[in-house]
Amino acid sequence: MFDRCGPQVGRCTRRRGLGLAVALAAAWTLAACQPSRPAFRGIDVTGATYGKTLRLTDQHGQVRTLDDFRGRVVMLYFGFVQCPDVCPTALARAVEVMQRLGPDGTRVQLLFVTVDPERDTPALLREYLAAFDPGFIGLTGTPEDIARAAQEFKVYYAKVPTGSGYTMDHSAQTYLIDPAGRLRIVLKHEQSADDYAHDIALLLREFDAGA
φ and ψ at 89, to 5 degrees? Predict the structure, then answer.
């Protein structure tokens, strides 16, 4: 499921991504065969062969990898600053999720990977993300770096020409990476802050129990 977002687009259109859809369908089947697993509300992709590495530069010029966030649950989202609807909704929901988690909200890190590195400069990412939460981290790199990260997480994005420039089509799901650095859950854009907070709480509980 993808979203087309841009400064001249008042709404987002939906598309189906066959590769990711097949992978998620397989994950649903696998989860159904393992009733002992926690009852996650997102799609359980534990053991996925993708989503293992990430290496990009944050809005302060520091190189970041998933290892930097061990001990916290990472909410990983791919988007872009000029997205008029879907990305702001996802970021506002992330703020709400952290609030719902109470003290455990400090154990969650939001990573926003731009799919529009040509326009989303580090300075613009700093300003944009600070409007939601100063602790949110924006990640960017060369177009090749972004393409590599998107491929690793099976994220679709594409530049779409418009009359005055271009906008971006992009996937809208959020990935949850557990405190051990493993990709565990895929949450759909349509899911609620309660769903997100529920699954993050389960991952934190599991980690604290030494699972």
Answer: -65, -45
CB 164 within 8 A of CB 8: yes
pTM score of the predicted model: 0.84
Backbone angles phi, psi at 13, to 5 degrees: -100, 155
- Contact assessment for residue 147 and residue 114, using Cβ atoms and an 8 Å cutoff: no
Nearest to 13 by CA among 119, 165, 171: 171
Q: Tens digit of pLDDT for each residue in 144-166?
A: 999 999 999 999 999 999 988 99
Binding site residues, as ranges? 83, 87, 170
Q: What is the count of structural domains for the chain?
A: 1
Positions at the binding site for Cu cation: 83, 87, 170
For residue 145, give its domain range. Answer: 2-208
